[in-house]
Amino acid sequence: MSAAAATRLQHDQNRADRWEGNLDADHPSDPSERIRFYDYHPAPADVRAEVLEGLSRPQKRLPPKLFYDRRGSQLFDAITELPEYYPTRTEIGILSERGAEIAELLGRHKVLIELGSGSSLKIQTLLAALQPQVYVPVDISREHLLASAQTLAARFTWLHIRAACADYSAPFTLPLESHWSNLTAFFPGSSIGNFDPQDALRFLQRVAQMLGQGGRLLIGVDLRKQPELLHAAYNDAQGVTADFNLNLLVRINRELDADFDLDAFEHRAFFNADKSRVEMHLISLRDQKVHVGGQGFSFARGESIHTECSYKYGIQDFHALAADAGFRPERVWTDSDQRFSVHALRVI
């Protein structure tokens, strides 16, 4: 954590002391009085280093977390509403239909952490069912996070929110109290699929350590299915996913003084059957040279920047991964078409 972030955290903690004194009894009517914001957002220098390192690889890569600036978050929200994109509505359907069962298993009135909260659409079903004492949304998009926190605090007038702007894919410290126990985390959207298998294992191990023995994780996992359905979901007819992918270059141009020509790249997504993952790429349409942060990078025609993976799992395969990370699988819920799954895991 940077010194500036540490100073902001201490400032917010001082303001929160009285609020923390009696969460059950103190429910201010003003939503903003029930929200505390903690900024662990990566510094620009960190983003620059990641981009330069990724573009220097033989297979150029950019981390998918960079998708989520303000515009990228808006585009992703639009993707979730597309007819071809099944994961969001399928997961929400499972949560809605099985909410009572999930609440019975996880328990109510606890601390609920959401990793990658986005627009907080899915969490609303869980908030109503679990009625947590404190909700801790974590997201890398500051504007999206603040707007969602305000919306949720206005809708759930009993809810206290500690919003943390952070990169959950890297180690960081959440604003949690030492006396809180039986923590529950929610990791929706099959975002676990964006990690390569070894990175997924390390991420789940960090989550298990954060939650502690007996803590629970509710996680969405996309299942293996026909390649035609996957192709349609990541190559929508309206081109919203293409805009989402290309917006990554818009952000780099803006934040890192780069000169990517958007007309010289195109979106491409396909299912890699050997690795059981959808891959998203930005393909160079000509031989060209691009400058980023004062460094030059050459592209041959047809060369790509790999921007995202989305691994698809079998249920037993995912259970094996979770067990290796220190979790015991407790329950799994799927839709009737077996497209998507929601797993309840408990830290051993």
Automatic annotation (TrEMBL):
Pfam families: Methyltransf_33. The keyword GTP-binding does not apply. Signal peptide: none annotated. Residues 9-33 have a biased composition (Basic and acidic residues). Residues 1-33 are annotated as: Disordered. The keyword Repressor does not apply. Gene3D superfamilies: Vaccinia Virus protein VP39. GO terms for biological process: methylation. InterPro entries: EgtD (IPR035094), EgtD_Methyltrsf_superfamily (IPR051128), MeTrfase_dom (IPR019257), MeTrfase_EgtD-like (IPR017804), SAM-dependent_MTases_sf (IPR029063). GO terms for molecular function: methyltransferase activity. Residues 48-346 form the Histidine-specific methyltransferase SAM-dependent domain. Keywords: Methyltransferase, Transferase. NCBIfam families: egtD_ergothio. This is Histidine-specific methyltransferase SAM-dependent domain-containing protein. It comes from Imhoffiella purpurea.
